Amino acid sequence: MAIFHLNTSTISRKSGRTSTAAAAYRCGGILYDERTEKTHDYSKKKGVVFSECFIFENDKKIILDRERVWNTAEKVEKRVDARTAREIIINLPYELDEINRTELVQEFTEHIAKTYNVAIDFAIHEPSKEGDQRNHHAHILMTTRQATLGENNSLILGEKTNLELSNTKLGKLGLPKTQDQITAIRKTYADMANDYLEFSHIDDRIDHRSYAEQGIDKLPTKKLGSKTVQAERDDIQTPKGDYNRLVFEINVKREELKLYERLDIRLDRSNIFIEQADKIIVADEQRSQRNQQRIVKTNKRIESSKQQIDSTERKISEYVESINRPKPIAPTAPGANKNTPTPPPQVAQEQAQKPLTAYDRRVCDIYPFKATNAYYQPQTVPTIETLAEREQPIHLRFVNKQGREVDPNNRDMLSLEKRIFDTFRSLTDKTTHKLKETHSFVKDYLTMTINDFTARYKLDLTQYDRNDIERKHNKILENERYENIVNKPQLTPTATNKQEQPKPKI
To answer: What is the pLDDT of residues 121-145, one digit of tens each?
Structure first.
């Protein structure tokens, strides 16, 4: 993954260093130091990918001569312990290609040059063959004074930059402290690097903040330095190397502890989930038991209802049989002619009434219809019942929506079902028998069964009408059965048999 690293330091005469020697080493070139009269030759140095020395003047990037820049910087400073240059070392994401890494360094150095008005000299180094192959980095040298161009493009170094001023002076000027300025530089570089990573469709990101600022529970390692790194490469253990190894082990242990903590939390959540699932299962079992009990009770009720239905059907069957049973012949009274022939069983069976159904019954006794208008004399307005009592013929007329009389046999009028419904809705049985002799349509209605009648006149009865027929038919049967029972002749009991005849069960 991409690693953030940005370190800044100063090149000071107090430590015996010169900016010309540092620039020659970073760029892998040859520079002559006019102050010390020494030539620094690092032309044999390998691994320098790209280098550039420039200044921004009037928002234009102007390339400068590296040797002239740093000799000017050495000449301007008079103190023995003067700082002649500041160096920034940045780690470049190895996930980026060489072109993107170069553009990233150029964009970052141009930002530094514009912000502090300094001359910049940077060099990009590739990883050494013996080191980590991910160690792409850049060395950035910047002047400690503000740089401008004078006459004949001569370089002029003026006042110290804000990075080189003391915090006391920065406070008086109302400027941020040096450490705050370095933090801003670190953030700027992290944002630029993340933009290039996103542009290259790389998911890794870098962060300029420390572990503590990010809220990461890790110990930071120490920078080893070139000599310590070389010693570690030669299998020589150093205090800094031991410290970093110990920090690595501690961080690994912390990660393991965090992993165990997360596992414990997940186990606790799983146990809670299992407990809730067990409760749900128990509730479902109880609900299932209650449903089973309800099913048993329902089955018992259904069985009891079936038994009641069977009992009711048996009673009805016995009742119908008692009604349809042939009438008993009265016993011969004393002194009567005993030679009176008894009717044969076949005749008695014919005399018995057969049970009727709704579709075998005559339509006139079943279907309730209504007469729209009765034919009457001009002076009187008798009702159908009145005409029936007078035994006068009753003439029905069929009227359409316009009030005109229409022949019922005419097929151009409304549907036959509508005609019948509007004509015979409320006729009684006595009245319908009088209509038999007055109209052929009524005659067919009175003499045919419902199936023959509907087939002849192409009548399509609705389910409501058939239900009405069935209800009416059952009512008629009830009336007839009641009349048969009431009008049944009383049998005279014989002298020898004084027991009463059993009454039919209703």
So the answer is: 999 999 988 777 888 999 999 999 9
The single residue listed with the structure tokens 């349809």 is 324
Determine the 3-state secondary structure of 399 from DSSP.
Answer: strand
Identify whether the C-beta of residue 371 lies closer than 8 Å to the C-beta of residue 426.
yes
Helix (H) or strand (E) holding 30: strand 30-33
Asked if the model's pLDDT at residue 14 lies above 80, the reply is yes
Nearest to 364 by CA among 302, 317, 429: 429
Q: What is the 3-state secondary structure (H, E, C) of 152-168?
A: HHCEEEEEECHHHCCHH
> Can you read off the two tokens belonging to residue 164?
């080189």
List strand residue ranges (DSSP E) for 153-269, in order: 155-160
> Parallel, antiparallel, or unpaired: how do β-strands 30-33 and 48-57 relate?
unpaired
| Dihedral-angle region of residue 333 (phi above 0 means left; psi in -120 to 50 means alpha; beta otherwise) | beta
3 state DSSP class of 358: coil
With residue 17 as reference, give the H or E element that holds it: none
Burial of 116 (0-12, 13-18, 19+ CB in 10 A): buried
Q: Is the pTM of this model over 0.85?
A: no
